[in-house]
Each structure stands twice: as structure tokens, then as C-alpha cells.
Here is the input.
Amino acid sequence: MILDTIAAISTAVGEGGIAVIRVSGVEAVPAVERMFRSKSKLGEVESHTVHYGRIVDPQTGEAIEEVLVTVMRGPRSFTAEDVVEISTHGGFISVKQVLDLVLRQPGLRAAEPGEFTRRAFLNGRIDLTQAEAVMDLIRAKSDRASAIALKQVDGRLARMIQGLRGELIELLAHIEVNIDYPEHDVEAMTADYIRTQCGKVISRVDELLRTANEGKILREGITTAIVGRPNVGKSSLLNALAQDNRAIVTDIPGTTRDVIEEYVTVGGIPLKLLDTAGIRETLDTVEQIGVARSRAAIVDADLILFVLSAGNALHEDERELLAQLRSRQCIVILNKSDLPRRLELEQVLEQMPEPQLVQMSVLQEQGLEQLGDAIRTIFFAGELESADLTYVSNARHIALLKQAKAAAADAIDAADAGIPIDLIQIDVRTAWERLGEINGENAGDSLIDQIFSQFCLGK
Ligand code: GDP
Ligand code: ZN
Here is the structure.
């Protein structure tokens, strides 16, 4: 299949430094060669080499930019096609000029969002889980999240899914052969084989699903509210967290929300902080902001960091809030523990019998590590799974894994009930198909369109 040649700016637009224009397809090398003045002849250079030169408008002879051009010939390239990348160091205008010039070449057109990755998929270089991982990688909000995505790009999940499909295909072949032998003992043997193979699939799918929740947390961050009365140290805590981690502010592309979310990591776990504007509020001596605003944030949070000051007796508002938070995932932070203790712990315990309690002094930079431990205890039963685990964190994968598991369980039930194997075959086939949809071996065009349309331009 020969596809037309596509081009787009592949780096984030508007940021200084270097911008890269990526061109992919059979016309990539000849098109760029036409506008490239250099000692190197792009048509003849070795693959994976970089060349210095000038981009010149071939019609007017006008010089536009000094650039570095990288040539990567297919199939050893990201898209498995010939790829040329033009690195420019200029601002947006000159990058745009170079791109316009490239797009004016015969046989070229602008790439759609995700189209480079889609080509890699269409050309068989990556499967769907890997393509989705590329997207996750672009959006990853913590080191760990990107480690998960990297593994997926690397094809780990793909190989596991392939392995499971292999088991099921063997089983399907076996059933096929034996359908024509209605003797009872053959039938019984096949039913046994169905039980073992489907049992294997179920237990491995279960293992994958167990990682799903943790994968989701690591990928999306724990939605967290920092609450407490004015002056207990919320802003200080936020600053300490942000400083440690270089707060990442993102607006997630493709969603209509215009809320800006802020991410920090604590002990490697990403937190998505709610209402940081409220916490940064400098006028929070005003009572109503403190508590009313806290209440709103609490509703949406998966984790609440309730900050108290050790230097003050428990306030009525705090007592009330503690009682409300009893049944929630809450960590009580006893801040300002460098000050003489005025707060009586018994009063806290009256409202919340078994709190996750962390003593802290933001001022003296103490307690952040314990805070990380407390979060791990709540969300990961104390331990983060080893980085070696393959995490499933994509909602689409999770849904399909569950469907595959249900079909495999149906097959086992049917075998137990003595249902004829040609009928059981349908369930086995369903399990095999659902797994195939995960890595795209069995995915329809509309699904593929939908997945790639979520990408940003130039990827
Ligand atoms: P917020 O109103 O809850 O956001 O509290 P701030 O973060 O604005 O802090 C209020 C005051 O408490 C500031 O003067 C901080 O410097 C001080 N503060 C914050 N953390 C500590 C701490 O651990 N120990 C002491 N002694 N003071 C602190
Ligand atoms: Zn504050």
C-alpha cells in the first residue's frame, strides 16, 4: 500500500528553541532535497544521518532558514516509511514558512493529528496498544506514568495479549479438529482442554486487571484536596510540594474543560491537586474562603489532606470537618510540629478513630517523606508494585479484558454443563476476538479512527 506523503510540525508550537518538521512518505526525501542547499545530496546520504544546510525557496531562490536535516529511510523509521526531519531553530514564523514550502511540493499534504503514529500502525511497525502508549507518553504526568507508557510502547502488553490469543487459537484449532468426532471420550478430553486453556486466560487477565487501578492512579494522578483552616500552612505545603516537583500545569487536549489542573508528585505518586487557586489565595484570613471552599473541593477528591496546626487547639470547624471526613480517604497532617503542642490528639481521635496521621513541619522541611508513605499505604497497600509489572491503565483495554474474561468464563461454564463443544467454540472465539481488539489485530476502522483522532498534530 503506497500512501501519500505527509508533513507537520512535530514539536510543541510556540515554545522557543528548536522546532522539528517531520515529513513521511515516498516523496519525503525528493521534496526536501529540492529546497535544501547543502554539501550533502539527500538522495544519496546514508540513513540515520544529519546534514547541515539552508532551506531555500526553489522558485524564488530566497533563503529561508538554516537547518539540520535528518534522513531516516524506511522501514527503520518511526512510520516505517522514508522520514525526513527538518530541525529549525527559528521562531514560529520561519518554522511555518519552511512547512508551507514543504507542503507546496507535489505529492505532499499536511498530516492529520496522530497520522504519523497511525502510519506506524498501518505499516505494521507498532500495534494499537503501542500507539495508544505513544499518546500516553505525550501526556504522562509523572515519571512512573511515563515508565508505564514506555513499557507499552516497547510492546510488553502487546506480547502478553498475543500470548493469550495464542493459547485460545490452539484451543480453537483443537475444537475444530474434534467437532467431527462425536465419540464421548474425545468430547470429554476437549472439555478438559477448554477448562485449562480458558482457566489460564482468566487468571492472566485477572493479573492484568489487578494492576488496572494502580495503573490508572499512576497515569492520571490521585485527585487530591488540601483543606484546613486559614493559617495552618496549606499554601506553604502546596509550595513545598510544587517546589520539590516543579508543578506541572496542563490543560488536557481534547477535553472541553478549561479548568487548569496542577500536578505534583509525592514519593513518586502523582497527585492532581484541586482548587490550587483557592489554596494560593492570599486573602485566606477571610473565614468563609477557608471552610466553604474546602467543602467544595472535598466532594471531588479521592484523597483529602487535612492540615491542622499543632500550635493551635482544635477549632470547632475542624472538629466538624474531621467528623465529615471519617469515611473518606483522608490524611490528617499535623503541621507546625516545631511549635509547642497546643492541639490535643484525643480530640482528633474522638472524631476520627483511626486517622492516617502525619506529623510535619513544612517550615523545617520535615515530614514530606512520611506523607509519601501514608499515601502509599492508602492507595498501594504500602508498596508500589515493582516497576517490572505490566500495568493496564487504559479504559478501553480494561473493558475489553473484562469482556474476554467473561467469555472465557462462559466457555468453562458451558463445558461443565456438558454443552456440545461446537457451541462452546463461540465463547472461545469471542474471548479471542475481544483480546484482538486490544492490540488492533481485530479492530474496526471506526475504532482506529477514534483512537488516532485523540492525538495531537505532528505525532
Ligand atoms: P494557609 O493559610 O493554610 O495557606 O497557611 P500558610 O501556608 O499561608 O501559612 C500561614 C503561616 O504559617 C505562615 O506564616 C507560614 O510561614 C507559617 N507556617 C507554615 N508552616 C509552618 C510550620 O511548619 N511551622 C511554623 N512554625 N510555621 C509554619
Ligand atoms: Zn494559604
About this structure: The chain has a mean pLDDT of 80.
